[in-house]
């Protein structure tokens, strides 16, 4: 019989693939929907779906838990606004995925800046390697960062802050309830921003609706449900190591789906960023539980 640890590993591997597929679904949906409107509808409906499934948890939350879940949802919303704006402007989804993955490296750095949590030496080494990787990507366009890359970098910083806030303030909130509230808050923020700055097309084709539904059901609701389930079966460090594969899957899917190609310099920059993710998780790799544990 398959060990619990191996089951968790396979589920997290599937989560990273679903997250990468979300990049493709979103890219296709943006051909017919405004970016902020799309992310608003996607996250609000996903939040209602997840929150509905976990309604027994949601209705028991005290006011303090609602405030904390809502506040972390606002931070997550700002990150998602930056991410979708980057996605709407980029012609290199693979590169964008690696830049967004820098949030993993930045989590302990922001934990140190805001909460005085002392980072390890590997954190600073990972940050140095990640900076070199980002520098290599910026040199591709002559000492400048594309607007899309800037949005992805901003999303990475804000997501790292979101992770710290989640870890610090939301540990006592049931995960399904927390996920549903946060997704819903993201959706409301994005729809508000869309209403203030975007105009909607008179009609959306069934193809566009299909990509929207795939984003809601597969890349958001199913992904977060499986992620919560997998994280309940293994340690957070275990899950974090496997989550570093998301940009790799995204780059591969972009090559197969969109026929994207990276230059040698872009490949070098993305490789450095991936190396920084591994360095950041190195001490957990060394202490990985045995199979079947």
UniProtKB/TrEMBL annotation:
Residues 8-135, 151-279 form the EamA domain. Coiled coil: none annotated. SUPFAM superfamilies: Multidrug resistance efflux transporter EmrE. The keyword Cell membrane applies. This is DMT family transporter. It is a multi-pass membrane protein. PANTHER family: EAMA DOMAIN-CONTAINING PROTEIN (PTHR42920:SF5), OS03G0707200 PROTEIN-RELATED (PTHR42920). Keywords: Cell membrane, Membrane, Transmembrane, Transmembrane helix. The chain crosses the membrane at residues 36-56, 68-87, 93-115, 122-139, 145-164, 176-196, 208-226, 238-258, 264-282.
